[in-house]
Input
Amino acid sequence: MGHAAYGNARISPNGEYLAVTVDHGDQDVLTVLRTSDLKVLKVNQLPDKKSVGSFQWISPDRLMFNAVKKMGGFAQPFNTGEWFAVNADGTQPVPVIFYGTRDATQRGKTVGAESYSLLDSLKGDDRNVIMQARYPRSTEGAGTEVYRVDTVSGRRTSLGRAPKSNCSIALDAAKEPRFAVCSSSRDESGEYDERTELYRRDGQNWTLVNASKTDGKHLWVDRTTDDGIVYASQDDGKAPAAIGTLDTTTGEFRQLFADPVAEVSRVIWSTDRNTPLAVVTEAGAPKVTMLNESHPDAELYASLAAAFDADGGFFQLYRRWPENSGVGLQRRQSRRALPVRPRQRQSPLSDDAPSASGSEEAGNHAPLFFHCA
Output
């Protein structure tokens, strides 16, 4: 049985465009179609046989995506660490995070040993995003720094660093670095002691809120919603990580979901990005478990899943502004299994979905090649 020709799909915030990854064998490209007539506007193809990995609409007409390298038919793709941005019509293609050679005018944007991940696409800001960079700090671990990144010019502005090594940072509702959860293997006297430390940032200073012995358990902040709820993962190294909420006053982790044998591969969020609707696990076959079946968006997802049952479709629910809403989803699991298509060679951060475009039209459209030098 061959792989599906199409991978992930996301509708733009205003519903005008559909972006979908297309499998070309040893390389995946990102195709953008106009939803009104499904006309292909642009095929985004990376150089050196790099594939488009996960992608995100950062404005009604601009996309951002990372690059991966395929490692065979069924192996997990290798993340290159590079990020790109482009308009829906193919204009303004920019290598936002790029590890190659820069010319004299671009040397200030050179990336060294840092590894970047997308923290927030900034609602209402069509140009900038918030990214988290991890970099070698010492023999004990890696440092973490948060940047505001201009996806048109490529310029990066530091918003703050973590207080110590091996931290993850979460933003507050104002999109400023606010919380850091740091993993430590030494106590104050230097003796071996596995613990997790929660820090809160007030101004330019980090305050230790909680330092608790966790019997080998480690906490990682995933995100802070607009209403101030901090979602995190907890891992003891013995079973798949659990997801839950974090009390930023006491450091207490309150579990929402854990599977005894399978890692959570994705979280499905509500359209306002404030409520986790479901989780996805993939032990043998993908399985979606609803966490909040009473939420209105949960009903929409269930109807979409039923409508695309024949294709095993998987959509992402996404709405940037209430008046301009689009359809899309993100992963996590439930008591009620819903159909999803198995992720084949997809990044754990990407979203699977069926495509509505015709391959003939896509094949006749000249691809856009990103030139990164």
User: Anything to note?
Assistant: Confidence is low (pLDDT under 50) at residues 309-314, 317-369. The chain has two helices and 26 strands.
